[in-house]
């Protein structure tokens, strides 16, 4: 990394001294305060002394050692008014993100990656950070609870992968993560949280973002206390899911609270997340003053929601068009996971996980009241054709039949149990 001088047009001052010339860190050069003074006895080792090198270094001294990026020199990302596809564990894989990009997602993020697994070099964990060329604004999400390991991991990512931002997961509600102090646990461990953010910020060349919830306990919001602190710690974007950890999906997201927090976060952009399944939901969300919107379950139920929001319309998508979307997913999966037996079965499992959400979609042409609400259980209905009825089924056996239409017969004794069981129905 080359250091820029304040006055590049001016010649570098060189003072003649006995035994050699003065190095570049001369008076008036802004690096002089941090560059260790070098001995002016180059070529005459017998004249060198301990006093000539007050700062001891190990190995060759380079610009990287003495010049760090200032906050204003870091890469900047314009998040304003973007549609952000949430980092979705299991379902937010690269082929699914490609589908969402086609439908108009602006920002994508890799699945949550465990910091300790990355540092141990686990291939499966590093695969979560892979980026497709269509993802023009892409970040990765890290989960961890210790400042030293999170900072080391951020440094490793900074050197080895190309991303536009790094996100800290401080909203994951699952017990495995929470009980060890990660995910939502960070929200109540503010000292550790601050050390993690400051440490990661010091080694990253890209913006650092954070995803949080309203709090840990139901009806005990703490995000509004944390957000002003995070502004001082140096985060570039805050995403707020309008529910607490204990609440999970049992009640509607609190967009009034999100609105309050967006004002506290200014000028740092704050994205709102929760219960968006139509362009009307998105319009109401934007009226709260958030800088942008994150979509999670809404994108899983109907990935074409990005198109609907951008075009302000309801898309009465046909069953044939939906099947084409699933075909594209399988093609992308073959490219990503391979076309051998192991690759095909991996695609099948991820497809079935996605279908466990997609089956909740009710075609616009069959709705008694538009738009569909994410917290209302879909009514039983007969589709306008056989395929539409099949796609509406809540039975695993019917999801498997759809997978066989795209990937061939399942192996003998095949069974499937979806990982995600977040209903959010009244």
TrEMBL record:
GO MF: flavin adenine dinucleotide binding; RNA binding; tRNA-dihydrouridine47 synthase activity; zinc ion binding
Per its record, the protein catalyses: 5,6-dihydrouridine(47) in tRNA + NADP(+) = uridine(47) in tRNA + NADPH + H(+); a 5,6-dihydrouridine in mRNA + NAD(+) = a uridine in mRNA + NADH + H(+); a 5,6-dihydrouridine in mRNA + NADP(+) = a uridine in mRNA + NADPH + H(+); 5,6-dihydrouridine(47) in tRNA + NAD(+) = uridine(47) in tRNA + NADH + H(+)
The GO biological-process annotations, alphabetized, read as: mRNA processing
Pfam family, any one:
Dus
- Sequence segments annotated as region (Disordered): 1-40
Note the InterPro entries from the entry.
Aldolase_TIM, DUS-like_FMN-bd, tRNA_hU_synthase_CS
- EC numbers, comma separated: 1.3.1.89
- Per UniProt, which keywords does this protein have? Flavoprotein, FMN, Metal-binding, mRNA processing, NAD, NADP, Oxidoreductase, Repeat, tRNA processing, Zinc, Zinc-finger
Q: Which CDD domains match?
A: DUS_like_FMN (cd02801)
Q: Does the keyword Kinase apply?
A: no
Q: In the UniProt record, does the keyword Metal-binding occur?
A: yes
Known cofactor(s): FMN
Q: Where is the composition biased (Polar residues)?
A: 29-38
Q: Which domain of life is it from?
A: Eukaryota
Show where the DUS-like FMN-binding domain sits.
85-314
As for family, the record states: Belongs to the Dus family. Dus3 subfamily.
What is the protein's name according to its record? Answer: tRNA-dihydrouridine(47) synthase [NAD(P)(+)]
Question: Origin organism of this chain?
Answer: Anguilla anguilla
